[in-house]
Structure formats: structure tokens, C-alpha cells
């Protein structure tokens, strides 16, 4: 089901203006508009820059990003952070895979919203790694903490 508004940009700006009036909102998380696939890669429209510029806090984008594109948009100050959905579901050790530029599991969309306790969220394999398994779960926390403590995130 699609959600349609007669003036989505104006509505977005209004919403961000309202958020900016309230202290305590730590971040604004927005999804990119629909992506298209070109040459087996998602093409992201990057339509959120006006909202990023308008918001006073930390800005998070999501919507079809991979490692390369995520690093690019952070480096170019298009966003502060990138959220990963589908590829994180299929890669429970995604931060480690990104760190090592490792291969990604392909996700199975048909298992995203099922009530099966075994198939879907919990059955994707971890990348083969001889190191301590705890590293797989601590990598993201370290990266976010590092960003905040080095003042790379708008506060």
C-alpha cells in the first residue's frame, strides 16, 4: 500500500521545523524515496538533503544503502549515520562484514514478516571467522561510541 501526500516536501519541512522546536529529540531517521535497480545495484535518489540541512540534530538515513554508498553519504555530509534494514536481517554480523569488506548473505523477503521462530531472522549464517564470537556483537557499539566521542555526530 502506498501512502501519498499532495505536498510531501512541504510536509517534511513542517515536521522537521516542529521537531526542532523541542529539545530532547536526539535524531531524525528518514527513509529514502523508492529506489530503482540499475546494473544489479540499487540507485538511491538522495532526496533527503533538504531535510538533513533543516534538522538541528543527528540525521539518519535508510533505504537501499550498501557499504560503499553508506560510507560515501557519511563522508559527503549527506547524513550523520546510515541505518541498514534488509541486509542487516540477512547478515547478523553486518558490522564485521563491512569492516572486513566480507561477502553478504542475500536476504529472503518472504521470511521478513513470518511467525516462524526458526526461518528468517535467526537462520542466516555468520561469516566464517576464527576470532572470538563476541567481536561480532560489539563492533557496531564501538563504532557509534567512537563517532559520538570524537564529535562527528551533531548533538
From TrEMBL:
One of its GO terms (molecular function) is oxidoreductase activity. One of its GO terms (biological process) is fatty acid biosynthetic process. Its cofactor is FMN. It holds the Pfam family Oxidored_FMN. Residues 26-101 form the NADH:flavin oxidoreductase/NADH oxidase N-terminal domain. It comes from the Eukaryota. Keywords: Fatty acid biosynthesis, Fatty acid metabolism, Flavoprotein, FMN, Lipid biosynthesis, Lipid metabolism, NADP, Oxylipin biosynthesis. Belongs to the NADH:flavin oxidoreductase/NADH oxidase family. This is NADH:flavin oxidoreductase/NADH oxidase N-terminal domain-containing protein. It comes from Miscanthus lutarioriparius.
Amino acid at each position: 500500500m502506498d501512502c501519498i501526500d499532495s505536498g510531501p516536501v512541504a510536509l517534511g519541512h513542517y515536521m522537521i521545523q516542529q521537531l526542532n522546536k523541542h529539545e530532547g529529540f536526539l535524531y531524525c531517521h528518514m527513509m529514502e524515496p523508492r529506489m530503482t535497480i540499475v546494473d544489479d545495484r540499487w540507485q538511491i535518489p538522495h532526496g533527503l538533503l533538504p531535510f538533513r540541512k533543516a534538522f538541528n540534530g543527528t540525521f539518519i538515513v535508510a533505504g537501499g544503502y550498501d557499504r560503499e554508498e553508506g560510507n560515501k553519504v557519511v563522508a559527503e555530509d549527506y547524513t550523520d549515520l546510515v541505518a541498514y534494514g534488509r541486509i542487516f536481517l540477512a547478515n547478523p554480523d553486518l558490522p564485521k562484514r563491512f569492516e572486513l569488506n566480507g561477502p553478504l548473505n542475500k536476504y529472503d523477503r518472504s521470511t521478513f514478516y513470518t511467525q516462524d521462530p526458526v526461518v528468517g531472522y535467526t537462520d542466516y549464517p555468520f561469516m566464517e571467522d576464527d576470532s572470538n564470537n563476541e567481536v561480532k556483537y560489539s563492533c557496531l557499539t564501538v563504532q557509534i561510541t567512537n563517532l559520538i566521542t570524537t564529535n562527528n555526530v551533531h548533538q
